[in-house]
Model the fold of this input.
Amino acid sequence: MTHQPVLNVFPDIAALHQFAAERLVQLANERVAAVGSFLLVLAGGNTPRGLYQRLAQSPFREQMPWEHMRLFWSDERYVPYDSPDSNYLMVREALLNHVSVPMAHVYPAPTNPDNPADAAAAYHSQLQHLIESHDGQLDVVLLGMGADGHTASLFPHSAALSAPASQLVVAVQDAPKPPPHRLTLTPAAINKAAHVFFIVTGADKAEALQAVLHRTHDPHGLPAQLVHPAHGSVTWLVDQAAAGQEKSAQA
Ligand code: 6PG
Done:
């Protein structure tokens, strides 16, 4: 059964981070108590950095079962791990350097093979193994959204949107958001989530958010609309600016 997306609008980004951190701690501890581990897929880009930094601070640093976490990425730019464009580096600096997740449980996307398709196949195998050992689901997937309605590295009208359901990770060569070469979870992979949280802030996202949530179904034009887990929930965590509720200066 596909749940209707839930939209939570927060007065500011700090309130959004507090809610998201509390919810993640709750879900993580519930899942660890039930099955012994928590499989979390991390969003890239800039927006989630503040949430990762919040999770590295008290009380969440003490409350999260870090030693039982399995961390994966929703997408990765095809750059070295020490590149300023690397989503892995962003998460390492904002979170991993400050909490005790065993490195054996951290699964950065491989960005060193000469052929990105080989890297995608390797990441697919890692994810497939993790999902099979985790009741066939991703516990939580965190996602951002671009002003064009893309999510992860699933960009409008790209071939990645039509990847077969058997494919969990694909390589992207022509991303309109630089850098152009990326690896991304496919819609089929994302839709194995028990819980998806979109984290979207800023007035520049307001038009896309309105379109994704309320415009007629246009998933290839608005890839975020492809996110509808068959057995999971979708929650949008947005600030007032992204919700189009910000009072404009001249109003
Ligand atoms: C990436 C992200 C991408 C991001 C959106 C929003 O690697 O670029 O996965 O999908 O979530 O582009 O980016 P911002 O959070 O930087 O606005």
Remarks:
- The radius of gyration is 17 Å.
- Residues 13-35 form the longest helix (23 residues).
- The CA atoms of residues 22 and 60 lie 8 Å apart.
